[in-house]
């Protein structure tokens, strides 16, 4: 895939109208504000930025290793397809690894509200791939790519089936890694875009919560979120889950929750007397 | 693959090693082994409750210095209950190398975590068989300014055994103005039930975040304000089902209305999703460690029926 193709995919994926479920998730922001946080800042603008800063930092540290490993798995699958005699065996292997990743994410996400949101958004992404990104029947098949795309589509269908039968949860970071590799984005772009979308959906949530106006949100997105996404993508790009790598140093390079206050407030989401988000 | 658990198997006692092997012996319990080496010291006071043993894990001088390693393994047989306590909070002093550096003002600017000395590391591995039970109820860990601490705890339970796992940390010596001023606190709690990992709780607190212009720098203290104590409580197994149910009921009764300032203490609970044996994770944050302790003591109060009033009061002095 050349640069123009990748840019086009980036444009598609950053469309805020995609039905990815992010519009009902605030990742704990609604609860944070409701509980009287932040403790020491009272301007709404600062509140929004502070939450995005702390939330993105802990999300990157805990979820990005899963994005990376899921993406690497599907990349590996794509690269071995040509040489593989037995395609279905290959897809079974990658699905079993994806399932291990997903289980690990479940055991590390010890917050039922975050788990619920992550599952809903993950499944939405897979549906988006099969319904929104597959080649429409009205167009003729492209013989140069069809073997590869058929194999990927078949593998993703199996993954959806595994999730529907409750075998695995299908968490957002894992499904994101799978989807972006399937669409041909590089790992680096996938990581960056994932963090950007997390930050942007927090800004959409803050507009709905009225902690910032629509223009203010745009200002923050351009001037505040940009350096933040860059810094976190750089900091967490080499973190891994340990599922794929022998000799992995989990204590230093593994996923970790780094903001216990945010974790606690996010888990308290359902206790709010009235709420507009699901998380 | 996960490498942390294999490193925990110590064939014989190493520096700072400890071994506890507890099994049922008639109506009471007996230690097949209870041994430790410097700087760890294990003491078991006489208690009168049947089937229960209390062990205090102590360190000489009441704290751990940079680079100290503690490896403790405990095996609890079916029908036996181990209550593992500490005496006073576990104090973690700053790393040795960093101590030398701090006397040299110019070195402060070059001081990065990987250039500092070895962090203090405490590893504990528990195996609980049959309907055995573990009550791990230590005092909180207190990391002093510039201290680095890793705590790695693995719990392997049979289906049918139970565990209460309390893991908590304070912001430091508030009397000396320390508030989240340590350099690293890493805590891993891995819980396996019947060979399946049901929880891997990894919490990392470090104050290494660099300033990202033009954004204001967020220190650990900023991120955790106004709280100075965080506790994680993991409850697993049949013995804890009444406790889990009570906590869930109390939690569901909470209604949050819009506040302008944070509460002095907040807590949450989430069920652990698992096919074999249910459990829950409780997190507590408080402005004062004492308030968190009171909350824990009240919330776990009816465990007095399980381990006896005397032992329960030892845990929550």
UniProtKB/TrEMBL annotation, chain A:
- Check the record and name the Pfam families matching this protein: UreF
- Classify the source by domain of life: Eukaryota
Keyword Chaperone attributed:
yes
The alphabetical list of record keywords is: Chaperone, Nickel insertion
**What family is it from?**
Belongs to the UreF family.
Q: Per its record, how is this protein called by name?
A: Urease accessory protein UreF
Species name: Hohenbuehelia grisea
UniProtKB/TrEMBL annotation, chain B:
UniProt keyword annotations, A-Z:
Chaperone
Xref: Pfam families: UreD
- The answer, when asked if DNA-binding is one of the entry's keywords, is no
- The segment annotated Disordered runs over 98-121
Q: Which family does it belong to?
A: Belongs to the UreD family.
Q: Which HAMAP family match?
A: UreD
Q: What is this protein called?
A: UreD-domain-containing protein
Q: Give the source lineage, highest ranks first.
A: Eukaryota, Fungi, Dikarya, Basidiomycota, Agaricomycotina
